[in-house]
Structures are given as structure tokens and as C-alpha cells.
């Protein structure tokens, strides 16, 4: 069962955008480097086919908010190339750096499970030192990219498929028939030029069972640990966020903030 405070409609309108010669050259060099890593049996970037956001519109005509996204094809090689070029060109040259922005996107999924006393607990993770982005940082339960197979022929995405795949791969959590899925919000990380869907899975699976099964997940190496936070009161969640103030991923902290506001109303993390 999937629920949400707003709906999202997407469509594919472009087979990709024109890349400047310098971008094509840098991408070719990156591909050569990553193929050499793979030949040495080292972990390498895969040519994952993905989608970028070309435009975003909000419709309110029906009284139910609807995000309408127009998307185009891209891939992870292009995303990484543009990220590296932005860093090299420097953030103090906005007119130059703007050439290398691409609105790619992913999903952050926070899980609310049940504690031993039946009260809600949030399942957070700590990323391992082996991941490319934000190694060692605290995060929501699982996060991942929108892959090409998550979209149908018209460009409409299957959000639940993305969330359940990433949860299963990284934590071993399986979405049950009585579990619910909700889109909390949409955030943006300018550092990575990354739109991020903030989503929530509420499950009746015992939290301790989730911790016990983590090591069985196919991609358990992406996280060093899962930890539980009492979610019956906002104070306990805020305390957990502040305990590692400078060690959270931007998208993880933003999703936790959205959760607090949705469940408890006006909550000021900075107070």
C-alpha cells in the first residue's frame, strides 16, 4: 500500500542533451580509467542509465498537489564527469560552473519500525568508508538513484520499486503487505546538483529483527551500521541528529527534518 501527501507524474521528453567537447573528452577519460579499474578487479563506476530532471511544475488545480516532471536520459559517467568539472572550475565562478550543472536525482528512504514496547522507532544508518559520497556519514535507512528500469516507456516512474529495492539491497528490509509507503517531500543538494525524494516506509517489522538481518543484505557493505532512535517524541530524534551534528549527509538530515515536521508539526532543529 502506497500513500502520500502529493502525487508525482513524470514523462520522458528528451533522449539526452548536447555535451560540450570538453565534457565529452573528460567523460571519455573517466570511462577509460574506470574500465582499467574493472580490469584490475577494483571497484569501478558502472555505466548506469539514469534520468535527469529537465523541468518541474506544481499543479494545484485539483486541490491535491501534483509534481509534474519532464525528464531526459543521462548516465552515471556523465553525472560524475559534470560533478568533477564543477569542482575543478571553482564555486566562485557561477557563470562558468553553471555549464556543468545537471539535475539528476535519487531517493532517501527513512524506515519507521516498532520497538520492543510497540512505540515507533526510526532506523538510521552510517555509511561505510568504501562508498564514493559522504563516507562515514550518518544517513537515513537507505538511499539510491533512480535507474532507467524504474521508468516505463513513457517515462513514468515506479517510486515504490526504487524504495523497496534500495532497502532490500542495503539493509535486507522487505516491504510487507501491511506496510505503508509515503512521499514526504522533495529536497535539493546544490553541492551534488541532486534532487532528492524524501520517502517514508512504516513497517510493523520489529526494529531488532531489522538490525539482526542487516548483514544478510547483498550490499550491506555500503553501511557500517544501523541504529535505532526513539520516535515517540521529537526531542529524542533531535538529540540523535545533534549528537553527530557535522557528520550527517545533507539529504539524510533534510529527510529527518521533514519527518519531524510532518509527524510533530513545527519543529526547529536549530533552536
TrEMBL record:
Gene3D superfamilies: Nucleoside Triphosphate Pyrophosphohydrolase (3.90.79.10)
Superkingdom of the source species: Bacteria
Family matches, as InterPro entries: NUDIX_hydrolase-like_dom_sf
Database matches in SUPFAM superfamilies: Nudix (SSF55811)
Protein name: Nudix hydrolase domain-containing protein
Higher taxonomy: Bacteria, Bacillati, Chloroflexota, Ktedonobacteria, Ktedonobacterales
